[in-house]
Specification:
By secondary structure, this protein is an alpha/beta fold. It has 14 helices and 23 strands. The strands form 4 sheets. It has a 10-stranded mixed β-sheet, with helices on both faces. Strands 18-19-23-20-21-22 form a 6-stranded mixed β-sheet, with helices on both faces.
């Protein structure tokens, strides 16, 4: 698949990984076009800044002139008009993961970050550590692909002629014609494994199926490689138990190779110590809050240190690390009301987000505004865990399940039951139909000092723009 420049068309180009691949392919000299059913930020903004056209909606005519190769996104299935034309006309096609391996990974060392939670942020941290270290050793400058826009780089991808390629390893399936996890295409030389929990209820039958996928990934790491794995999860322990390479654990236990100690918040920054094999090794700080972010940073630091990056460079990188778009991103601050966007896809992620906001904004009235949108949250399989997580907020507001008609009634989450359980547990909660109803209901109730966490892994019908606009109108009217 490598060779002279070609015209490559990506169906579903606004997905985070697909847009990043488009950028990498363009850097390599290929002519890129793409299509999607609805372009939305941040990836639509990234693509437009690169001059890559986004054709909307899907149509057979989007494949005129006929491209040399079509990349089919994993969210697409038979019946899509472009897929049907590809199959009818025998246009060469592939998946994002397969093309990424062929074009970029075969000649490089893949450093993969995988896990149910934290992989986007951890991948961004690891890439930034390598970038900072490259100031003194240009051979460390990384290529990378991240499932989000890393704010230190202003991008979700980078291509350099060096050997290291840092990559977020996604356990979701590859394409309609390849139902295995994307990360099985990446053949890691080193691997970070953050968490293993039941997720992606649309493609995994149960937790055992999820663990099987991660065990297969672990089995691809060569003997000369390294796995850095979280030590606070029996599922992770099981998945790495038969690794053929060294495994180093990170976390809070005394047995961890990389042990976090004395985690604290001072003057708006998080500080912690790391012991390496029981001996004091480093003191770190960064502006992000949350135990989960200390774990993410320690995992990245451990892998970087294990391959020889100096501790001083690691500490500098973490101290200057910004964040990733849509991860605890402050979208607006209006009359003392703080609006925060977070990419919520699972009850555990919601729990850690709300815990981090409690630490960052002590004493604030914390609102959780949730759109059940991910394939896991739209199902009732983790409803009890969702109630527990949302119970960390002072007020909870739920929207209707996204595209609920696509979920069988017997599997579907019933948000009214979640609201009922929250109210019974003394967390005031309500169910509102959509973003407009939510904005209309909560705008008059918000007061200075409130923090609103807007939780969705999609566009949430423009609520990130609608709520700030309504708040500004409210306070402008009040000042007249």
């Amino acid at each position: 698949m490598t060779g002279s420049p070609r015209h490559i068309h990506l169906i579903g180009i606004c997905g985070t990984a697909m847009a990043s691949l488009a950028g990498l392919l363009q850097l390599k000299g290929h002519r890129i076009t793409g299509s999607d059913k609805g372009a939305y930020p941040p990836m639509s903004d990234l693509l437009r800044s690169l001059g890559i056209p986004i054709l909307e909606p899907y149509s057979e005519s989007n494949l005129d002139p006929v491209p040399d190769l079509v990349v089919i996104g994993n969210a697409l299935s038979r019946g899509n008009p472009e897929i049907e034309r590809v199959l009818d006309d025998r246009i060469p096609f592939t998946s994002m993961a397969a093309l990424l391996r062929e074009e970029f990974l075969k000649s490089r060392e893949s450093l993969i970050v995988a896990g149910t939670h934290g992989k986007t942020t951890t991948t961004s941290m690891l890439a930034w550590i390598y970038q900072v270290a490259a100031r003194n050793d240009s051979l460390l400058e990384p290529s990378f692909l991240i499932g989000g826009v890393a704010e230190n780089f202003g991008s979700s991808f980078q291509l350099r002629p060096t050997r290291n390629f840092i990559l977020e390893g996604d356990e979701y399936d590859t394409a309609f014609f390849d139902k295995g996890p994307k990360f099985l295409h990446y053949f890691p030389a080193e691997l970070i494994l953050t968490h293993v929990e039941f997720d992606h209820a649309d493609i995994y039958a149960d937790l055992e199926a999820v663990k099987t996928a991660f065990k297969r990934l672990v089995n691809l790491v060569p003997r000369r490689g390294l796995i850095v794995a979280y030590d606070g999860s029996p599922n992770v322990t099981e998945c790495v138990s038969h690794a053929f390479c060294p495994v180093e654990r990170y976390g809070f236990t005394e047995a961890a190779n990389w042990r976090i100690r004395n985690l604290r918040y001072e003057s708006g920054r998080m500080h912690w110590e790391v012991l390496r094999s029981g001996v004091g090794w480093a003191d770190f700080e960064m502006h992000l809050a949350g135990e989960h972010n200390a774990l993410n940073a320690t995992a990245a630091a451990a892998l970087a240190a294990a391959v020889g990056i100096p501790t001083a460079a690691i500490a500098e990188a973490l101290a200057t690390f910004k964040s990733v778009k849509r991860r605890l991103e402050v979208r607006a601050e209006i009359n003392g009301i703080t609006l925060i966007e977070d990419f919520a896809h699972h009850p555990t992620a919601i729990r850690e987000t709300l815990r981090a906001l409690r630490a960052t904004y002590p004493g604030a009235r914390l609102w959780a505004v949730l759109e059940p949108r991910s394939n896991t949250l739209r199902r009732k399989v983790l409803a009890a865990e969702l109630v527990s997580s949302l119970g960390l907020a002072d007020r909870a507001v739920l929207a209707a399940v996204y595209q609920q008609e696509r979920i069988p009634e017997t599997e579907r989450l019933h948000p009214e039951e979640v609201v009922r359980a929250l109210n019974a547990a003394d967390t005031p909660a309500e169910l509102l139909a959509d973003a407009d109803a939510i904005v209309g209901a909560i705008t008059p109730q918000l007061a200075p000092g409130d923090v609103v966490a807007i939780l969705s892994n999609g566009g949430f019908d423009g609520i990130y723009e609608k709520l700030p606009a309504h708040l500004r109108e409210r306070f402008a009217a009040a000042s007249v």
